[in-house]
Amino acid sequence: MRTALAAFDLRLRPARGQHFLTSRRILDRILDASALTPDDVVLEVGAGIGTLTVALARTGAQVITVEVDARFIPLLRAVCAPYPRVRILHADAMGLTPGMLPAVPTKVVANLPYSIASPLLVRLLEARLGRRLVVMVQEEVARRLAARPDSKTYGLLSVMVQAYATPQIVALVPRTAFYPAPQVRSAIVRLDARDRFPLPEDRLPALVEVARAAFGQRRKMLRSALQRVAGRPRPAETVEALCRKAGIDPRRRGESLSLEEFARLTVAFGSRE
Fold this sequence. Notes:
By secondary structure, the chain is an alpha/beta fold. It folds into two domains: 2-193, Rossmann fold, CATH 3.40.50; 201-272, Helicase, Ruva Protein, domain 3 (Orthogonal Bundle). The protein contains eleven helices and eleven strands. It has helices at 2-7, 24-34, 51-57, 73-80, 117-126, 139-145, 156-162, 204-216, 222-225, 236-245, 259-272, and strands at 20-21, 41-45, 62-67, 86-90, 107-111, 132-138, 165-173, 178-179, 186-193, 228-229, 232-233. The strands form three sheets. The chain has a seven-stranded mixed β-sheet with strand order 4-3-2-5-6-9-7. The chain has a two-stranded antiparallel sheet with strand order 1-8. α5 (117-126) links the parallel β5 (107-111) and β6 (132-138). α8 (204-216) packs across α11 (259-272). It is elongated. The termini are far apart.
């Protein structure tokens, strides 16, 4: 890695999340979890110097890799030159749309930029980019993604992600697996897209709004926390009636509700509308 950086006169910017993977063992865990075949079209976000990009290309899959830092594009073109099925996009992943891609991804494999990992992951899921996503994120974020109700890490992000996919932590990753070493530990998470959503897809944003209100005031019971969903005020007695219509005790708190219970609440609030 140092040789490649020196050859292109590049300096890393850790403040921008530029910590690149140097562990072959962790790289193999990512590839194993991805289970790529030559029939796959894989989207990578945050290519950096191309360590993961080349490993993905060697599986025979078609690779679309996105890198926002223009300084790394010449290096990427050089290391990817032997692999004609790699397409390099100089773009900001947060502005990425399916129409910008040369093919429809079947999978997403990426060491996500940690500063935008959560919103970016939600965007990828909402855009239905890939049936399987294997991503590297901070360990804290990974635990929130996979959290279950009544746990300290269960919250809005858990519900937003689990509405679209089933997450599983594949492996914890030490700081020493990167150069330069970050200040936090990381984890590999595999997310398999749901075959069936808890609600029709066009109702999922409404589910997120109900969950946002429920988690917005974690110490409050639902009968208080849900008095303002999506900015619309409702009296406590109306909220209580809607909760009971969904078969949920209005004295419960948001962190105790399962995804399916949030879906029932969303239906109840929607019928009231």
